[in-house]
Design a protein that fits this description.
Blueprint: H1 2-22, E1 23-26, E2 29-32, H2 48-54, E3 59-64, H3 69-80, E4 88-91, E5 111-119, E6 123-124, H4 129-137, E7 146-153, H5 162-173, E8 177-178, E9 183-186, H6 191-210, E10 224-229, E11 261-270, E12 279-285, E13 298-301, H7 307-317, E14 324-329, E15 344-345, H8 346-353, H9 362-369, H10 375-384, H11 389-401, H12 406-412, H13 420-426, E16 433-436, E17 447-453, E18 456-458, E19 464-466, H14 468-474, E20 485-491, E21 505-508, H15 515-529, E22 537-543, H16 546-549, H17 553-561, E23 566-571, H18 581-587, H19 589-598, E24 602-607, H20 612-627, H21 632-644, E25 648-652
Parallel strand pairs: 3-4, 3-5, 5-7, 7-8, 7-9, 21-22, 21-24, 22-23, 24-25
Antiparallel strand pairs: 1-2, 5-6, 10-14, 11-12, 11-20, 12-17, 13-16, 13-20, 14-15, 18-19
The protein binds flavin mononucleotide.
Flavin mononucleotide binds next to helix 3, strand 5 and strand 7.
């Protein structure tokens, strides 16, 4: 009894403290800091039907999103519903009781829309995983459920938009009614264009289906209300940390996307020997974090925007960046009270929470048009945000091809004096950047290594664009006076060495595609040093010039000397004709077949998804056909089987 009583007191104490920490007092008022898109839903309230009913809504837009695009599209659809008298709400399937889809029909004119991204090998995003499995394994009767699906994917991946395709088909199988055709967005081309083109036909179909009409109003609707703190400042002001954290320096495990670990930068050195490009070898100290990793995993880095760009936005919008403010959701029912941790200063929001370097999407341009005093500039923005062929062409040329960011748009349209709080509402959240880990925990249990090329180039308008994360990391050179830290977390991957060390492997990793293979080779060398029997490891590496960008040359030559690796090297610019790793593979079909066909080995490819990974796939298929004496259909089935057995793995971007 005593133990039960003590346990009860303990639980009560924990709950009480959690509630306290989630409620922050500011200016005498109490603001409940609810989870942002990045924090865990702590509430047990997960009935979306209840929320819809209590707020008089009939449209619910679910999103399956990892890096925010699907979530952003869902938000835009939910917001636009009001134009058709369908009050909408965005919902994270992970935070909802999805079985309630069965009863959505009890709400008149109800509609469920799904914006779902595909990842990995045709897998759903983390937040849609449970829903996806429920659809796959269950047999709920969804008769009477009205739905539509928009998928987010990338054509360079083999399983293009597989999740959305499946969900769209499965909902129909379970009896639901498709109100409008499945839309597929391709991130390799122009996903924004795909989305607005789909949405433009989706809404009339919805109107037709429910017999409703558009209100005809093309209005801008603010989702958040601004509170600026002029005299008395709130007690708690966020300075770049995540909403769930009290302080980035007072951290506690477990570390994940919502609670990143502040890792010290232990080493940051240049890997290129010559030339004007830079490739960094960085080692993060994870000692004491209790974070574990395997070779082939990814590490996520939360970067910080360039201070000069932040300053420029302050200048262009004529705002004192030190002003402290809160953006409060006008929709009190929404679980998302703020777009990012608030209260905070404009400088912090622009530095830590918002993406200010991507190409602005069309809905941002549409809202910006309202701020232009020059009619020509206003017209230009309106045209670019329209779905007319000229509008799309102009968006493609002026935004995408010219690679303009929000800063460039404001600079080039000087009459557009946008309000900064509105911009803060419109710009997407700054996302973590993922890197393939280039070390093995067998050798380095307390450090995680990454290999990253500094992104730095001139745009067609003569501006210099720099990668957010790599340019920020580049200056973090450890020295006795300064200790640099970076918020990180580990993301598990499926890219794994064979369980049996004797299994032979082929690795294709040109440029920084070599990163995970550095970890693989470290691991295999470690096992050899322990007198374990280790299978053959064949590496295809390529770069421009041996004397310039042959990264980790010393290490590789050492492994070669010790017979740990067999190297096939392609230096594309060291001779008059270009030679790439794919050319070398073409010449070694016998060896490929010997490893994967005769000795049950594994094949890995890492790096550029657009051309290299596809070409490698084709060459492996050719080896199976020619050397394995199989016809095309049999060879394709052979390769498919290798993929399902995780004997053919790709880590591409
Ligand atoms: N798209 C596909 O169609 N099929 C895939 O298998 C696939 N795998 C991906 C794996 C990685 C590591 C990344 C970064 C993207 C992948 N994509 C794939 C593309 C994403 O689905 C696409 O970029 C989408 O817009 C992301 O949406 P989100 O920002 O809402 O997460």
């Amino acid at each position: 009894l005593l133990l039960v009583a003590l346990l009860g007191v303990g639980i009560w104490w924990l709950i009480r403290n959690r509630k306290k920490s989630d409620t922050l007092s500011s200016n005498g008022k109490s603001y409940s800091i609810q989870p942002t898109s990045m924090t865990l839903q702590t509430s047990t309230e997960n009935s979306f039907i209840k929320k819809l009913k209590s707020s008089g809504r009939s449209l619910v837009v679910f999103y399956g999103s990892q890096t925010g695009t699907g979530e952003e599209f869902a938000g835009r659809l939910a917001k636009e519903g009001i134009r058709y008298r369908l009050k909408g709400m965005v919902a994270d399937p992970e935070e909802c009781d999805m079985e309630e889809l069965v009863t959505l029909k009890t709400i008149p004119n109800s509609l469920a829309v799904f914006c779902l991204a595909t990842y990995g090998e045709g897998d759903p995003t983390d937040n849609a995983m449970e829903f996806y499995e429920w659809l796959q394994s269950g047999d709920a009767d969804l008769t009477g459920l009205n739905y539509a699906v928009f998928g987010l994917g990338n054509k360079t991946y083999e399983h293009y938009n597989q999740v959305a395709i499946y969900v769209d088909k499965r909902l129909e199988e379970l009896g639901a009614t498709r109100v409008y055709d499945l839309g597929l967005g391709d991130d390799d081309a122009n996903i924004e264009d795909d989305f607005i083109t789909w949405k433009d036909k989706f809404w009339p179909a919805v109107c037709d289906y429910f017999g409703i009409e558009s209100t005809g109003e093309d209005f801008s609707m603010r989702q958040y209300r601004l509170i600026e703190y002029k005299e008395e400042l709130p007690e708690r002001i966020y300075t770049g940390e995540m909403a769930r954290l009290h302080s980035l320096t007072n951290q506690r495990p477990p570390y994940d996307a919502k609670n990143p670990f502040l890792a010290k930068v232990k080493v940051n050195r240049e890997l290129h020997k010559n030339g004007d490009r830079s490739c960094m070898h960085i080692e993060f100290d994870i000692d004491g974090s209790k974070m574990r990793y395997d070779s082939g995993d990814h590490i996520a880095v939360y970067p910080v925007n360039n201070a000069k760009l932040v300053e420029e936005i302050g200048r262009l919008t004529n705002v004192d960046l030190e002003t402290v403010f809160t953006l409060l959701n006008t929709d009190e029912e929404s679980s998302k009270k703020h777009p990012f941790p608030c209260p905070t200063s404009y400088r912090t929001a622009l530095t830590h929470y918002l993406d200010i370097t991507m190409n602005p999407r069309t809905h941002v341009l549409k809202e910006l048009a309202e701020y232009c005093t020059d009619p020509a500039e206003k017209e230009k923005l309106k045209l670019m945000s329209s779905t007319s062929p000229e509008g799309k062409a102009l968006y493609h040329q002026w935004i995408m091809d010219d690679n303009r960011t929000i800063v460039h748009v404001l600079e080039d349209l000087p009459s557009c004096k946008a309000s900064l709080d509105h911009l803060c509402e419109l710009l997407p959240r700054l996302q973590p950047r993922y890197y393939s880990i280039s070390s093995s925990p067998k050798l380095y249990p307390n450090t995680v290594h990454i290999t990253a090329v500094l992104v730095d180039y001139e745009t067609p308008t003569g501006r210099r664009n720099q990668g957010v994360a790599t340019s920020w990391l580049a200056v973090k050179q450890p020295n006795p006076d300064t200790e640099y830290t970076v918020p990180v977390f580990i993301r598990k991957s499926q890219f794994r060495l064979p369980t049996k060390p004797q299994t032979p492997i082929i690795m294709v990793g040109p440029g920084t595609g070599f990163a995970p293979f550095r970890g693989f080779l470290q691991e295999r060398q470690f096992l050899k040093d322990e007198d374990k029997q280790v299978g053959e490891s064949i590496l295809y590496f390529g770069c421009r010039k041996r004397a310039e960008d042959f990264i980790y040359q010393d290490e590789l030559e050492e492994y070669e000397k010790k017979n740990t690796v067999k190297l096939h090297l392609a230096f594309s610019r060291d001779q008059s004709n270009k030679v790439y790793v794919t050319h070398l593979l073409e010449k070694n079909l016998d060896e490929i077949w010997k490893v994967i066909g005769e000795n049950n080995g594994h094949f890995y490819v890492c790096g550029d998804a657009r051309t290299m990974a596809g070409d490698v796939h084709k060459t492996v298929l050719k080896a199976i056909m020619e050397k394995g004496q199989l016809n095309e259909q049999q060879a394709t089935a052979f390769l498919k089987k290798m993929e399902t057995q995780k004997r053919y793995s790709a880590d591409v971007w």
